[in-house]
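Lab notebook, bench 4. The sequencing result for the construct came back, and we need a structural model before the next group meeting so we can plan mutations. Quick request posted to the team channel:

Model the 3D structure of this chain.
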Amino acid sequence: MEYEFLTKENVERTVVAVWSSLTSSPSGSPVSREACIFLLSLATVLPASRIAGMKLGDLDFEHSVWHDPRRKREQLPTVPLTRLTKALIGHAYSFRGDRDGDYLFPGHRDPSAPVSGSSLLRAFRRAKIEPRQLLASPGYDLPTLAIWIMAFDGVSRDANLAAAHRKVDIWRLSEFYNPYRWLFEQRQFALGRLETALMRIVGLSYSDPLFSQPGVRQPTGPGPAPAANAKAQTI
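Done. Here's the predicted structure in token form:
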């Protein structure tokens, strides 16, 4: 069982189990605000606790970026938004009330407080899907699942690390590139590939109801917007 996670087939089967347990059929839309947190964690390669602290004022749909507040020793916190992540954010917004304040997920406002993995296991049980051991183990969470998806899809190690906000040696590139711009573009590329892979695995298309949430501004093309106008690239 300990090696099962390393096969493409089992990774994809787990993605289908996660996605189907957190979305309704046939629309494919998230079933709850909490489901949006977990799906965004998978689609952005970030921990659910970090997604839970998302503020509306940090979202820039025009440039397809989320200006996530900088963490200690982090090189560049900006997260490119794909069409899929923007659609999930739109559905999360639809669960909000008139007095929910500045946070996209009121009630989950402290990014330092972990979102319990038991919430995901409850979602599996509601969908009558047997939880997989890899998701019940501390070392195998949704961002790790996303990293394996990208790796199996041929995304380079540096781009994979950039997408996961893990340490990348960007200063070796400073003679030839703006290292922060390079980091953003690697993250943008990797998340675009992740979106394509996720949609293929779970059978989504841009014509599905998930991408037509009423009242939510949707991007016009696949993947993240070009980085040239994103203010975060010069951070």
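Residues 179-202 form the longest helix (24 residues).
Will bring this to the meeting.
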